[in-house]
Amino acid sequence: MGIKDRKIRQKERLRKKIIQIAITMLLKDGYEKFSMRRLADKIEYSPTTIYLYFKNKADLVFNVIEYAFSKFVERFEEIDRQGNNDPYENLRKGLRAYIKTALEYPQLYKIMLVIDYNFKKEECYVLQQGTMNERAFSFLQNTINECVKQEKFTEEDIAMFSQIFWAAIHGLASLLITQPEFPWLPEDKLIDNLINTLMKTLEK
What we know:
single chain, mainly alpha, Arc Repressor Mutant, subunit A, Tetracycline Repressor, domain 2, 73% helix
């Protein structure tokens, strides 16, 4: 390995370390109390070093959220790579994968969608095209659209039903993560029945 490659790997390791420590701090203290200076103290580097990787607090948090959403995009892309031409089955797999991934990475899920970041509109990079958030939602929306094209679903408002589906699976995932003491029915039974109910709302 050359010196250049070694430096690139060292930079990537530090970048990952910054993100991991930021996740821990955000979960413990929330967004408002989170600061680049306190983060620098945790990783034992100067604040200037962090600004070499992230231009400000909002940019760092955006990258933390991107990292969290990437876990979901990986699962959705795996479904696409399987080459199944049945969008109905792919949608079922995608909905299940979403909930299961949230339960596998509960701390990351809280980072993604539970913590209130109170972003200013101009800081809300998450809404931009090509982000992990947008790619994850696009999988859901595109798969529902394919179901409509193949006449498996009634031709309804795709955007509306995509948002309803996301709200439903997010609701179950969030409840299972934040309310573990509730006497839930078996996890797989809950997930399967929720998905069946959602799918039936659009079936012809």
